[in-house]
Amino acid sequence: MAEGQAAQGAKDSRYDWLQERVCSSLKIKEEQFQKLVQGEARAQFSDFLEEADTKRLLVYLDGKDLGVAIKPPAKFKRKTVYFVKTAPAKLDNDNIRKLVSCRQLVADPAGFSCHPTHPCAPA
Questions:
Q1: Quick check: 28 pLDDT over 80?
Q2: Which run of H or E residues covers position 119?
């Protein structure tokens, strides 16, 4: 078993923590988040959680589709949730709450800039 994977039967609550904030902030269904995490984007989520040097994760709506990136895009989408590590670390079920800050970016309707909004918290 890979070191970063949870043992059989043990719950990996890191994904639940991310899901709560993304679904609440972007007003999407859990199924949309699950589809993203179980698809090709799994590697980016894993990098953020497992690699100490990966310091940010951005989840955004692109039309009706959900996207993910490790690096900020050249042009932000309408609404983006971003997670930033406050210190380089591999994240586990306990330290994710202490070491990760979550915020939203909302693009200016004119498309000129993005404005950070309130911290994201589950509804």
A1: yes
A2: strand 114-119
Average pLDDT, the chain: 83
Higher local confidence (pLDDT), 71 or 117: 71
pTM above threshold 0.90: no
Q: How many residues does the chain have?
A: 123
Tell me the C-alpha to C-alpha distance, in Å, between residue 112 and each of 71, 75, 78.
19, 9, 11
CB atoms within 10 A of CB 118: 8
Contact criterion met (CB below 8 Å) for 105 and 72: no
Q: Using CA of residue 36, residue 39, residue 43, residue 46, what is the dihedral sign?
A: positive
